[in-house]
Amino acid sequence: MRARKNARQVHGILLLDKPLEVSSNGILQRVRWLYQAAKAGHTGALDPMASGLLPLCFGEATKFSQFLLDTDKTYQVTAKFGVRTTTSDAEGEVISEKPVSFSDAELEQAMQALRGDILQVPTMFSALKYQGQPLYKYARQGIEVPREARPISIFRFELLSRQHDSADFIVHCSKGTYIRTLIDDLGEALGCGAHVAKLHRTQVGPFSAEQMVTPAQLETLNNEANWPALDALLLPMDAGLVGLTSLTLDAAQQKHIMHGQSCKVALPDTASVKLYSATAQLLGIGEVIAGELVSRRLVNLELLD
User: Fold this and answer.
1) From CA 280, how far away is CA 257, in angstroms rounded?
2) What is the C-alpha separation between 54 and 19, in angstroms, rounded?
3) Consecutive 10-residue averages of pLDDT for the chain (305 residues)
4) Are 54 and 76 in contact (CB under 8 A)?
5) How far apart, in whole angstroms, are the C-alpha atoms of residue 52 and residue 187?
6) DSSP states of 81-104 as a string?
7) Are 81 and 194 in contact (CB under 8 A)?
8) Residues with catalytic roles
9) Which of 141, 193, 201, 284 could form a disulfide with 52 if both were Cys (CB 3.0 to 4.6 A apart)?
10) Strands (DSSP E) found in 131-232
């Protein structure tokens, strides 16, 4: 769904409550159309069977989406035990079915082994690439390719409730974690197999579920007269840049940086620093190397007028 020819310059971050059974890109394009925004992107896809917090970046905010891609996330997940599937979720074909007979103590022991800093082999049904092709394309052809285990961190893996063959968990994890793989690994450790029956994301970096906006809320504002109300739902472009040092540039420094030149600053070396004008306008992200500030990602100020 394309924006109209006279698309608007919209800048900021929308915290969308993604519904089930729609792709992240599909809902992104719908919301972009509602805003009539010239440019938009998401910050890490949720599977169609997953719901919850999906930050969408508009306009110049897309330049800083990587900071949300790289941050930690929290999920509420329901696992179904006794059934293992090809995709490690309810959409896949059943690989095996086994009786469920583990105790609560055995479940806790298996969960403990998956907490902290661990290595995880990515699922074949992922967008990671092998020889230029996403893994899921190989998987759909029945081809399995080698994948290296990657370091991830499981900060919290907590059991909320358990029935005989299913359980609800909270998982707080680092970037790059596949919840489907985590649950599949849990099922294998318990000897019965498992898959994700339900997945809902509640936190992305500094953002939480309480801040989410539903597509239905946006649909009610779907006309030109309501654009100010739609825009009021957007967070500032720098809302996701938490934990970074802020630096206000004087006029001379700003001129140098915005023209791609470096300038002297009294800061220790740092890979990322938020840059602001004297009027508190976000200018972009820079890096300090041996007392020299260089730009990394800059806002196009002309688009903000």
Assistant:
1) 16
2) 10
3) 71 96 93 94 88 96 91 97 93 93 97 97 70 69 78 98 96 94 96 97 95 94 87 96 94 95 92 95 96 95 89
4) no
5) 24
6) ESEEESSSBTTSPEEEE------H
7) yes
8) 47
9) 201
10) 133-134, 150-162, 166-173, 194-204, 207-208
Amino acid at 198: K
**Which residues have C-beta within 8 Å of that of residue 305, sequence separation ≥ 6?**
none
Q: Nearest 10 degrees: CA dihedral of 174, 178, 180, 186?
A: -60
| pTM, to two decimals | 0.91
Do 134 and 186 contact (CB within 8 A), yes or no? no
205 half-sphere exposure, CB direction, 13 A CA radius: 20
Supply 22's token pair.
Answer: 């729609």
DSSP 218: H
> Which tokens is 44 given?
């890490």
Output phi, psi for 110, to 5 deg. Answer: -65, -40
